[in-house]
Write a structure and sequence with these properties.
The structure holds two protein chains of two kinds.
Chain A lengths: L4 E7 L5 E7 L4 H7 L17 E11 L9 H5 L2 E3 L3 E10 L5 H4 L4 E14 L2 E8 L11 E5 L6 E5 L9 E7 L5 H9 L5 E8 L10 E7 L3 H14 L5 E8 L8 H10 L3 E7 L9 E2 L16 E7 L1 H14 L4 E6 L6
Chain B lengths: L5 H7 L1 H4 L8 E7 L8 E6 L2 E8 L2 E6 L20 E3 L5 E4 L5 E4 L15 E2 L1 E4 L2 E6 L34 E10 L3 H9 L11 H5 L7 E4 L5 E4 L6 E4 L6 E4 L1 E2 L4 E2 L10 E5 L3 E5 L7 E8 L5 E10 L3 H23 L1 H15 L2 H5 L7 H13 L19
Antiparallel strand pairs in B: 1-10, 2-3, 3-4, 4-8, 5-6, 6-7, 9-10, 11-21, 12-15, 13-14, 14-18, 16-17, 18-19, 19-20, 20-21
Helix pairs in contact in B: 3-6
The chains are: A alpha/beta, B alpha+beta.
Chain lengths: 341, 397
């Protein structure tokens, strides 16, 4: 005899929905947790009230072992404690919190102040902002849209620092001839300028897992990679084996060498390889692109995770080559395209 | 090692400057074995982490000293109903000693919470009369051996060989007390080659006519040796070699080193997470080990022990007699009280961060700068400021 199952739709208060198939026998909470959906709860026995939700549609009955933190009136009006509730039909349940709590922050509009602009190479500038608002949070690897002051233009850039550096946030910006942001950074900026920021955005961010973490960065693709690297450095203990391959087409575009050297010093398990596609004759480093520096030995750990950030051809090549050399390898990527100015 | 210019040198030890509360995922001494009798419960604080120690069936266990229910320290009123658990005095939340799991609640033995939550446990190693606890992240694995967080073993054939805390025949005798200074200031004072000056009038120095120099001055980049193979990580002052000159006079100031008996084989070295070895002190053949265990960001627990190799009960008894009547009063207290004084004098400068920015180091401080870099590279984590805990009550209940 097959178990009767029902479809429960959990709707967060920001509109995001999560669907869970449940049976009659176990409470909604327990089955959601088992299926990897970490709904808010605590005591699991009906007494603390933390897991209270609102039943919008369908048949869900309450049955707690001990006294329950809801009045009969509240239950009559649709309140349920999911740790002590059992499905008796398909149902729609409203959760009194946003999906942010479970899935990470959603993009919002924020205000920041320009602290500094520093040239870090002939073609790359560092923009340092201080967030005016306390609540800004992001996952390492994500990006934000910045509103260039005194213009109607918005451009997207990855955060090069981590949450623990807040309220300061750094962005690494490629200076283009005649670009709106580039012009602002070259001539227009003033310390104390206000800047609007929309974020965080993007599904490229540090994931759990990986006893070996390989990071490939092309040009200003180093920004989100550096955020990921620093996040691993401060939160993954023991540190996994790490390899950062950073490269650019021309030597002028290689930057932050001292920063990378410091990180290599601070992390015995990190190796940094710098490469250049078309170097001058005085270049003493590796010639080629970041991907080409990977040996089979680098890829030998079955639990390897790869993060790639750079121009589209670099991403494509990484996927193609790595999937061939190591089928099934886990790759996360972010494409960097120069803006259309 | 590449030469690093001053501004880059400061960035090289940036992680060290952030380690106000100490290093995570390292072995620290918690109590002497004799401080934890069978069935006893005691609380200590290391790096802001409240830790409960319990001895049951002769074995020492360590768990987080904070009940999951309402956050009280279990050690305030030791409550144990059997020898495989420890309970909270407030509502009787009862935790397994080995894995920290909530096994029962006195008035709610069937509660839903039981078996679903657990207190963090900490690995314990008890050796030669000292109880060490591995303080760090829940689930950190693999836990490195205690030996990795202790000084190196001196080879058997070394002319001035001294005992190691883990030696089978080692007898460890000592004290620990709380110092009102950050753990890093205590470490740096411990092996600073210029501070010998504060010890020149110590009773033990005078009575033994020790020829202590005014200070030790490094004269080459080989004056300090970095130790960073597998195992202990640290730095050694190469006293007794041509790389360190014992300074015996300052003519201009009319100061001269006194004493005629040269301490042979005297050498200091410091290892993560902050343990000092002073070879052939307070006399040749003995060794003093010190730990500077962070209690919180303003205090350290200062451990001093003297270790002797004893191969018979008579040797052990003789050492104990010598320790109680001579070394503890004249060395551990008489001599080292001056170190506590110096650390506490530095604390106000560094407490709000000013000191780390405005200190003016000199040539004598090379080993300290080396230490800061080694810690920045080889730490297994930095402890964060704690939340929801009270560290004001002191290092030990």
């Amino acid at each position: 005899m097959t178990e009767q199952t029902y479809t429960i739709t959990f709707r967060f208060d920001d509109g995001i929905e999560q669907i869970v198939e449940v049976d009659r026998k176990y409470p909604l909470l327990h089955q959601a947790l088992e299926q990897g959906i970490p709904l808010v709860h605590q005591c699991r026995s009906g007494s603390c009230g933390t897991c209270e939700v609102q039943l919008l549609d369908g048949d869900v009955i309450m049955s707690a072992k001990s006294s329950v933190a809801l009045t009969p009136n509240e239950i009559g009006q649709g309140s349920r404690l999911i740790c002590s509730s059992y499905a008796r039909s398909d149902a729609l349940v409203a959760l009194p919190y946003s999906s942010d709590l479970i899935y990470g922050p959603t993009a919002k509009l924020w205000h920041a102040t320009v602290v500094d602009v520093v040239t870090v190479s002939t073609s790359v500038a560092l923009l340092r902002l201080s967030m005016d608002d306390q609540g800004f949070r992001f996952r390492s690897g994500q990006y934000s849209r910045l509103h260039i002051p005194n213009t109607d233009s918005w451009r997207s850039f990855s955060m090069a620092t981590t949450e623990s550096d807040l309220p300061l946030v750094d962005f690494l910006i490629r200076l283009l001839p005649g670009g709106t942001m580039s012009d602002y950074l070259r001539h227009g900026w003033r310390k104390g300028d206000s800047m609007e920021l929309e974020g965080p955005m993007g599904s490229f961010y540090l994931r759990d897992g990986g006893s070996t973490v390989i990071m490939l960065a092309g040009g200003t693709g180093l920004a989100p990679i550096l955020s990921i690297l620093d996040q691993v450095r401060s939160t993954r203990r023991p540190a996994p084996k790490m390899l950062l391959c950073f490269g650019s087409a021309s030597e002028d575009d290689i930057f932050y060498l001292e920063e990378l050297e410091l990180r290599e010093f601070w992390m015995p398990s990190l190796q940094v390889r710098i490469s250049c596609d078309r170097p001058s004759s005085s270049w003493e480093g590796i010639i080629g692109n970041p991907l080409s520096t990977l040996s089979d030995a680098d890829l030998s750990d079955p639990d390897t995770v790869v993060y790639v950030c750079g121009p589209p051809p670099m991403i494509e090549a990484a996927h193609q080559q790595l999937s061939t050399r190591k089928p099934g390898i886990q790759i996360y990527n972010e494409q960097f395209r120069p803006s259309s100015i | 090692m590449t030469v690093i210019e001053p501004t880059r040198q400061k960035r090289a030890y940036e992680p060290y400057l952030k380690a106000d509360w100490g290093l995570a995922n390292h072995w620290y001494p918690a109590l002497f074995s004799h401080e934890l009798a069978n069935d006893d419960v005691k609380g200590v604080t290391i790096g802001g982490v409240p830790i409960l120690l319990r001895r049951a069936k002769g074995v020492a266990y360590a768990l987080r000293d904070q009940c999951l229910h309402r956050g009280v320290k279990l050690s305030l009123k030791p409550t144990c109903f059997n020898d495989s658990t420890v309970s909270c005095w407030y509502h009787g939340y009862t935790y397994d000693l080995a894995d920290g799991e909530l096994r029962s609640i006195v008035a709610a033995p069937d509660d839903e919470l039981i078996g679903k939550v657990a207190l963090q446990t900490f690995p314990v190693e008890e050796v030669n009369g000292m109880i060490f606890v591995f303080v760090g992240d829940r689930g950190y694995a693999p836990v490195p051996p205690l030996a990795d967080d202790l000084p190196i073993h001196i080879p058997e054939d070394h002319p001035f060989r001294v005992a190691h805390p883990l030696d089978e025949n080692a007898v460890i005798l000592g004290i620990h007390r709380t110092g009102q200074a950050n753990w890093r200031l205590a470490v740096e004072n411990g092996f600073d080659p210029g501070h010998v000056l504060i010890h020149r009038d110590a009773e033990i120095v005078i009575v033994y006519d020790m020829a202590l120099p005014l200070g030790f001055k490094p004269v080459s980049d080989k004056a300090t040796e970095v130790i960073e193979g597998d195992g202990p990580k640290g730095i050694m002052n190469m006293y007794g070699t041509e790389h360190y000159v014992p300074v015996l006079a300052n003519e201009e100031l009319g100061q001269y080193a006194r004493g005629t008996v040269i301490p042979m084989g005297l050498r200091t070295s410091m290892y993560l997470p902050g343990v000092l070895m002073v070879e052939n002190w307070p006399k040749q053949g003995l060794v003093q080990y010190e730990w500077y265990v962070p209690v919180d960001d303003k205090r350290h627990e200062y451990w001093e022990v003297i270790v002797a190799p004893c191969n018979s009960p008579e040797e052990k008894e003789a050492f104990q007699r010598e320790y109680i009547n001579l070394w503890e009063p004249m060395a551990l207290r008489g001599f080292n009280d001056a170190d506590l004084f110096a650390r506490e004098a530095m604390q106000p400068f560094y407490e709000d961060g000013t000191g780390w920015e405005e200190e003016q180091m000199c040539s004598l401080d090379a080993v300290i700068m080396g230490w800061r870099r080694i810690v920045s590279r080889h730490n297994r984590g930095i402890l964060s400021p704690p939340h929801g805990t009270d560290t004001s009550s002191g290092s030990q209940e």
